[in-house]
Write a structure and sequence with these properties.
Blueprint lengths: L2 H20 L23 H6 L27 E8 L5 E9 L6 E10 L3 E4 L5 E5 L1 E14 L3 E14 L2 E14 L6
Antiparallel strand pairs: 1-2, 2-3, 3-6, 4-5, 6-7, 7-8
Length: 187
């Protein structure tokens, strides 16, 4: 095979990969859309974005209990975490978390995460202005985590989520369980 044919095949392969990657099918909504707390499934901080999906295995910060509550047992000192992000329009996302490491007693933490929109215009079917409304979301976590043995860490979150839009609201509570197993001994 000559050089020209190889180059054309490589170019054709790159173009094919580019076009198949750009033609992703539309994602269907799943059963959690619209429920209180569904927005937490896509919540990310700068650290979680940088680590991709690997953060679940190393969620050792105060706010890391959202991804894996067992990670709280890896903390070495008290931590306070606060972040605020401006999103599109007037939407804002805020997070506050405080955690205390434990040795004899479990590590404990509390977290509060909010997502609030700006005002949306309310209209009727004739597009008459009827004022405005906003959307508010809040999640509150209480976390406990403990190292159990040399290689096993266990943790649990009690989570309360609330969503308000116009005069409608919904609340939900949940329990998250997490574990981290160190497969190799620490050196």
């Amino acid at each position: 095979m000559n050089v020209m044919k190889k180059r054309n095949l490589i170019l054709l392969g790159c173009m094919l990969a580019l076009f198949t990657g750009a033609a992703n099918p539309a994602a269907a909504q799943d059963d959690t859309y619209g429920q209180a707390g569904d927005w937490l499934l896509s919540y990310q901080t700068a650290r979680t974005s940088a680590m991709g999906g690997a953060y679940v295995a190393n969620a050792d910060g105060a706010l890391g209990s959202m991804w894996n509550p067992a990670g709280l047992s890896r903390m070495l000192q008290n931590q306070v975490h606060f972040e605020s992000a401006s999103l599109f329009g007037e939407s804002r996302m805020n997070a506050f978390s405080f955690a205390l490491p434990g040795r004899r007693f479990p590590s404990v933490g509390i977290s509060l995460v909010t997502l609030n929109s700006g005002d949306f215009q309310r209209t009727n079917e004739l597009n008459d202005n009827l004022g405005s409304f906003s959307n508010g979301n809040m999640a509150f976590y209480i976390t406990g985590a403990k190292r159990v043995g040399k290689r096993l860490r266990l943790g649990a979150n009690l989570k309360i989520a609330r969503q308000e839009i116009e005069e409608f609201s919904a609340s939900g509570a949940g329990l998250d369980l997490g574990a981290i197993i160190d497969l190799t001994p620490k050196s």
